[in-house]
Amino acid sequence: MTVDEILNEVRSEFSRRKFAAGLAMAFIDFLTSLNALGQGFTSYERFLTAFPREAKTRSGALANTLIVQLPDGTTKSIRPFYNGIEQLIRATHHRLDFPSAAPHATQAWPDYTRWIGGMVSAEVADVIALRDRILAFVLESLPSHELDESAMTKEAPVFLLLLRQFDFCARRGEPTGAAFQGAVFAYLRADAPHLQVEVRKVRTGSKRVGGIGDIDAWDGDRLILSAEAKHLCFRAADVADLEGFANEIARRKAIGLVVADSLEDAARSSLKDKGLIALSRDEMSDVVALWDPMKQRIAAQSYLYYASHVEQNAVLTARVKDFIASVTPQ
């Protein structure tokens, strides 16, 4: 059997047994490793006289793949060579339509012993060229699944950048604390999409409008989470101002957050004693750093919503828009 005839059979078999192309290439690598090419063998049977087939594995089980005995008494199997071909086609050349079926493929070797006979009786250069021709045929026949990296961009973590870089100090025309309260609202809105998250303008007075904290998150009529936003270094002396908030949180069996720019250790301890959770801006940033780009985008847009529709403050809205545009130029 000539190398051209082998190639034609590989092409014919490919439509029903794609792995056959890989098996043919594995045969070539296997025979090359045995130095069995160009040795004057005229058939598969003559090849077996030099490299007898092992009928059993090392464990004593019946061998269902091709294993031969070497002159030094060791054995060699076709399986590692097929694994290498499968890796070459699927991983290196990204032809994922080529089957991942090494056990099945290497059990089918008895159907193609005529290929081995043709390979060992052919010129070495022709057999090596046959391997390249089969690979080229496979690559041409199967679509590539390689990613087009030039068409992919990494989306900026917009809300994380906002937390770390945005100036939360009030500018002329902005109410004090609004920029930071908006950030806390946006954080909770993106992190708890299953809850109804409410926020009011700064200095509105939560109790006067039926709220508990600066930002409240509800499940129906039950308060699940409420947060106080403090754009300052929260100190132990500030805890007394949250007595009513802490009592309401305890009464409703809700989660109470105190989110501040930073917190003293003594303040953290006092808040914990009152059943409240302390969260600094840096800690909030650490959580946001784990968010995917879509969640980051939701938070950024929620912040813009707060500035434009809750505070209805043109200065803050313009600053938020400009910042988002600066970190997401696309």
Task: Describe it.
There is one protein chain. α8 (about 160-165) packs antiparallel against α12 (about 280-290) and α13 (about 295-310) runs antiparallel to α14. The chain is elongated. The strands form 2 sheets. The protein has a 5-stranded mixed beta sheet, sandwiched between helices. Strands 1-2 form a two-stranded antiparallel sheet. The chain has 2 domains: about 5-140, no CATH class; about 160-325, Trna Endonuclease, Chain: A, domain 1 (3-Layer(aba) Sandwich). It has about 325 residues and is an alpha/beta fold. About 50% of the residues lie in helices and about 10% in strands. The model has no long low-confidence stretch (mean pLDDT about 95). About 35% of the residues are buried. A hairpin with a 5-residue loop joins β1 and β2. It has 14 helices and 7 strands.
Structure in a nutshell:
With 330 residues, this protein is α/β, with parallel strands linked by helices. The protein contains 14 helices and seven strands. It has two domains: 139 residues, no CATH class; 170 residues, Trna Endonuclease, Chain: A, domain 1 (3-Layer(aba) Sandwich).
